[in-house]
Design a protein that fits this description.
Elements: H1 3-26, H2 29-37, H3 40-53, H4 58-81, H5 88-95, H6 97-130, H7 135-149, H8 155-179, H9 184-191, H10 205-216, H11 224-232, H12 240-269, H13 279-328, H14 330-336, H15 344-355, H16 368-378, H17 383-393, H18 397-400, H19 407-432
Helix pairs in contact: 2-11, 2-12, 3-10, 3-12, 3-16, 4-9, 4-10, 4-12, 4-19, 5-6, 6-7, 6-13, 6-15, 6-16, 7-13, 8-12, 8-13, 10-16, 10-19, 12-13, 13-14, 13-15, 17-19
């Protein structure tokens, strides 16, 4: 009599464990998306915002994360559910040929600039770990290592090690954020504040706010997600639900990581009068609480994050650029097919994305923090075109039928277009002023 309940519980728990294991195995593009999104942009903008402005700009992060989920979900749904089997870039191109040219030029430029600050940061982190004052040499070494490893059999092992280091650094930030006992009232007030605080330190509040929007909502890295979905085998409407849940998981992870870094900036760096002007300033927080181990863990985690991000962007951006080229020159698509790597230009795009950014690691160029904030702010320039095009094509009844946008998604895309237009104007006025 006493053994039956125990057996029933064991029988019931086994399928539950199997379902949980199956869920973890099916989640994939979202995890890759987190690695593609989480780079120096999140680390720098969140730490600078927290250390310079407390929770005053938290509302910008909240709005940007909501827009990221909506924009990427609409992009993914279009690719899964349109009845012509179009990729997202084919969807843009069928609106007007100029969209193909825009995405080609924009992806080429932003791929160069995004790898610029990531290679610069990776070089500085590696030089610090090796105790040598040769950040340019270390940045070159990172670029060569990425070129030799990406696509090789050994790369998954390297990537796995980098993910573990990233996870360890993230855990350290989470522990530190909890230990710092964040001001929940201030955090809530900042989330619903909708105001721009007075400038503090080197980087003005408006520039930092625009950089957050660009790094999160406006990042062209958001276009990586459909390519990863395709590699996973998610190609039709039947995958829409798991895609949405997978993306929601990715965004929730992003919220936790960004919030932890922000809290560390607001509750540890700011009270100690530390403004984030270099990687060393962020490392100071972990060193204060965890000593040399915290310092080492931070630099290993930063290097792992940047190395993985450079690898991811060097892999994904050439696919995006080649796809755009095929929209401009349909004859190349007919000649080389749908496998982007078969087009010889794909390799040249990889070389361009990986090695030309090294010029930004030369002496006399902007420092890592300034370059990161500036490049992510520039992301905002392309978002109005992207959001407006997405608004039009995601409402095409002939292509999407019942999978068209609902009223909230249309309202959000309209808001994103207006917000980014305003941000672009304010950024231009700030730079000219």
């Amino acid at each position: 009599m006493t053994t039956r309940p125990h057996q029933a519980t064991g029988t019931a728990s086994a399928p539950a464990r199997q379902r949980f294991g199956q869920l973890l195995r099916t989640l994939g593009p979202g995890i890759v998306a987190v690695l593609a999104w989480l780079g120096a942009g999140d680390l720098i903008t969140s730490s600078v915002s927290g250390s310079n402005y407390g929770y005053g700009l938290m509302w910008v992060l909240a709005v940007s994360l909501l827009l990221r989920f909506l924009i990427v979900n609409i992009i993914a749904r279009f690719q899964l559910c349109n009845n012509q089997g179009m990729t997202i870039l084919e969807g843009y191109a069928q609106l007007h040929p100029l969209f193909g040219w825009f995405m080609f030029i924009y992806a080429l430029l932003m791929g160069h600039l995004m790898n610029a600050y990531m290679l610069k940061g990776a070089g500085e982190a590696l030089a610090t770990l090796l105790h040598i004052n040769q950040p340019l040499l270390c940045a070159c070494a990172v670029a060569v290592a990425v070129w030799l490893l990406v696509g090789r059999n050994v790369y998954p092992v390297i990537e796995g090690a980098m993910k573990l280091l990233l996870a360890a650094m993230t855990l350290a930030f989470l522990i530190l954020a909890i230990m710092s006992t964040p001001d929940m009232g201030g955090l809530l007030a900042g989330t619903v504040g909708f105001s721009i605080p007075a400038d503090t330190g080197v980087h003005g509040a408006l520039l930092v706010a625009v950089s957050i929007i660009g790094a999160v909502a406006g990042s062209i890295a958001n276009f990586v997600h459909p390519y990863v979905m395709k590699e996973k085998g998610w190609t039709g409407p039947e995958h829409k639900r798991i895609q949405r849940n997978d993306l929601l998981f990715a965004v929730l992870v992003g919220i936790v990581i960004n919030l932890a870094i922000w809290v560390v900036g607001a509750e540890i760096l700011r009270p100690n009068g530390i403004e984030v002007n270099s990687i060393d300033d962020i490392a100071a927080a972990l060193e204060m609480y965890f000593g040399t181990f915290g310092w080492l863990l931070f630099y290993l985690g930063v290097f792992a994050t940047l190395f993985a991000s450079v690898s991811g962007k060097t892999t994904a951006f050439p696919m995006l650029i080649t796809d755009a080229l095929h929209r401009i020159r349909p004859g190349r698509r007919e000649r080389y097919g749908r496998v982007f790597r078969d087009d010889p230009m794909h390799k040249w795009f990889m070389l361009f994305i990986l090695f030309t950014p090294l010029i930004w690691s030369l002496p006399g160029t902007p420092n890592f923090v300034t370059l990161t904030i500036g490049v992510n702010a520039l992301n905002i320039v392309g978002l109005p075109v992207i959001a407006l095009g997405l608004l039009i094509m995601s409402n095409q009844k002939g292509l999407l039928g019942r999978y068209r946008n609902n009223w909230f998604e249309n309202l959000a895309l309209g808001f994103a277009t207006l917000l980014t237009l305003w941000s672009a104007v304010q950024l231009a006025r700030s730079l000219l002023g």
